[in-house]
Amino acid sequence: MILNPAINKPAAAAGDAVAHVHHFFLPRSETFIYNIITHMRRFHPVLVSWKYRNLEHFPLPQADRFSMSVPVGSWRWLRQGIGRRLLDRELGAERFLKQRRAVLLHAHFGRNGIWALRLKRALRLPLVTTFYGHDMSRATSLASCAEGYPSLFEEGDLFLVEGPHMKERLAGIGCPTEKIEIQPIAIPLAALSFRPRRPKAKGEAVTIIFSGRLIEKKGLLVALAALNAIRSACPFFEFRIIGDGPQRQEIEDFIQLHAMKSFIRMMGFLDYSAYLEQMAHADLFIHPSMTAADGDSEGGAPTTILEAQALGLPVLATRHADIPYVVVPGGSAMLSAEGDIAGLAENTARLLKNQESWAAMGIAGRRHMEAHHDADREIRRLEGRYAELIERSNAHSHGR
Fold first, then answer.
1. Residue 6, CB half-sphere, CA atoms under 13 Å: how many?
2. Distance of alpha carbon 118 from alpha carbon 105, whole angstroms
3. How far is CA 263 from CA 208, 227, 237, 241, 313, in A?
4. Residue 175 near residue 127 (C-beta atoms within 8 A)
5. 272-281 vs 303-311: helix axis angle to the nearest 10?
6. Minimal CA–CA distance to 32: which of 300, 303, 244, 298?
7. How do residues 316-354 score in pLDDT, each as one tens digit?
């Protein structure tokens, strides 16, 4: 959906390292993971992954990266295969982490937590696993991880989620409640300039914006149906859609069928600076997330909703997953039931006609972000959790 620039670079301080484990550093939409890595100060972040992409947008020092992908037929490939088949070990990754003085593993997404158990067992390091949504909700994800999750939940030391809804869902698939903690998404607020929205001049169009992957759970078709329902009764507006994905053709067909092209701009993927520029000029942000047919859900909440509030945009969203937890319902955001076209249409029409409410909604959203999602504070909190686990692990080892 968007690419994040190097707002901060990974800390270069020497000392103990935390190893971040992910199958891919980093997909376009995973700015929330990059924000963790770039805001670490107490520990040095190092990375273990199979793929490294988008490095021009997500700079990650080569010396801090270990790749599990090796040329087929090479000596390293042969040694890696022997280690896996005969010892159930990842010898190359183990050697890298020992050299970098790793003291803790942090796996991103449940599947990567399962894989990281190999490193935990071999190196006797604490393991933190963050769940993000589809890894605890999508039917295919749950099926593919069914054998691995029980071991992960038993051996893993700490499991992080974005909010209370996710905590309940994770406990529901077998994770011990006492091991689950809420760690809000961290947003670099200093990089997001706040601007309260003011009523438009007579005859000036209202800009409504959406940003996200074009997939079912993002609810864009619901947003289009709601806007189509109010187009003749509300002040003139333009709807800008940032993003791309498998639903693009279905969305374009809907726009064509309902003759909506005159007030809709399909903008595709944008880099982060272009995305922020569009958000800065918008008046309202809409993101009606919903549970997809295959069970996929936000799990927590889209990062774009947090960024919209930080920028001062009033939000139109749904009572889905942890969205009510990351906004101020009735304050910074107006929420409808997921999939409720009529409810979303009513809320949108209300904001279009009551533009004097925009500024107060924006202020409420920014204050909420400052209180609960500031990256500097939240990553210090996360590093404090790391330190507690490391101390506990050391005490246990010395007590043997």
1. 11
2. 11
3. 10, 10, 7, 11, 20
4. no
5. 50
6. 303
7. 999 999 999 999 999 999 999 999 999 999 999 999 999
- Single-letter amino acid code for the residue at 287: H
Dmax (CA) of the chain = 76
pTM above 0.70, yes or no: yes
- Please give the Cα distance from 371 to 332 (Å, whole number): 14
Complete domains list, the chain, with CATH: 2-186+374-398 (3.40.50.2000), 189-372 (3.40.50.2000)
Q: Token pair of 120, please?
A: 């935990």
Distance, CA of 103 to CA of 97 (rounded, Å)? 9
Dist CA 317 CA 335 (whole Å):
5
Q: Which distant-in-sequence residues (6+ apart) come within 8 Å of 131 by Cβ? A: 109, 110, 159, 160, 161, 166, 170, 299
Residue spans of the chain under pLDDT 50: 1-14
Give, in degrees to the nearest 5, the angle at Cα 123 between 177 and 36: 60
